[in-house]
Amino acid sequence: MRKLTSAFALGCLAAFAPVQAVSQGVPAAGVSYSLQQSAAEDPGNRPIPIVIWAPKAGSRLGLIVISHGTGAGPTAHIDTAQALAEAGFVVVAPMHPGDNFQDDASVGKSNWFADRSRHVARVIDYMLTDWEGHARIAPRRIGIFGFSAGGTTALISVGGAPDLGRVTPHCASAPEFVCQIMRPNVPKQAPQWTHDKRIAAAVVTAPGIGFAFPPNGLKHVRVPVQLWAGSADETVPYASNTAIVRNLLPQAPEFHNVDGAVHLSFLAPCTAQTPAFLCQDRPGFDRAQFHASFNQSVTAFFQKQLKR
């Protein structure tokens, strides 16, 4: 497990690197948002590091929480965060303690997703009460974006309840990535999930452990969901993950199947500093071009579902 997550983590250093720029100044002139670092308290646990993209003007702003995937960090979806901030949303991205590029202590353990869903609630608490710009946020305009493990986190946050007892029978014959992480660590007791009714819309991208949701596992999800999958995703296969989520949601999601996209195609477009293995899209797949339309669709969804 350490080898698997460490390999992913090394690549995500490049995705996280832009956060260093926070201490060096604000975004370039003409950009309509500011970039900040802070931390949300999580009583009894470590503080949760966060990155905030905040429009420089406006009131009654929507708030979007971005939950990154395993071994990543707050800026793994930096282009999506920037697009949402440009559209007038306050965006906050936690670095999930126990599951990030520096720390994988919770990955695959019984507290993995329970901690992640709690982090989301604590970050929303911070943004609505302690953040210096909290008065500019409209509490009824809160959404969540999640990728991979972050997609699962988003589903739990809006009412989903996976049954981790389903991991062992599924992984007995399944070769998918998460089985290499979770199979030795299947919990003996059901975790306590944190659901947050303040969240009014969710964008769920290539969610993991879809197979762990029982037939009634998503019955309490009552918010609109935009659901994404990559047709070439072998890390989180469609049939055992996104397809199950799609079929179990009580309200049909706005579904997008991206032709030719692999799992990491949903990460921000690569730069010269990004490790090559994070940039291995299928031949002919243009990640930058895809993200231009992806970010537009994500932004339009939140604008529609989180109206002023």
Automatic annotation (TrEMBL):
Protein's name in the database: Dienelactone hydrolase
Sample GO molecular function, one term: 1-alkyl-2-acetylglycerophosphocholine esterase activity
InterPro entries, sorted: AB_hydrolase_fold, Dienelactn_hydro, UCP031982_abhydr
The organism's place on the tree of life at top rank: Bacteria
Domain Dienelactone hydrolase: 54-167
GO biological process: lipid catabolic process
Secretion signal span: 1-21
Keyword Hydrolase: yes
Taxonomic lineage from the root: Bacteria, Pseudomonadati, Pseudomonadota, Alphaproteobacteria, Sphingomonadales
Pfam family, one: DLH
UniProt KW keywords: Hydrolase, Lipid degradation, Lipid metabolism, Signal
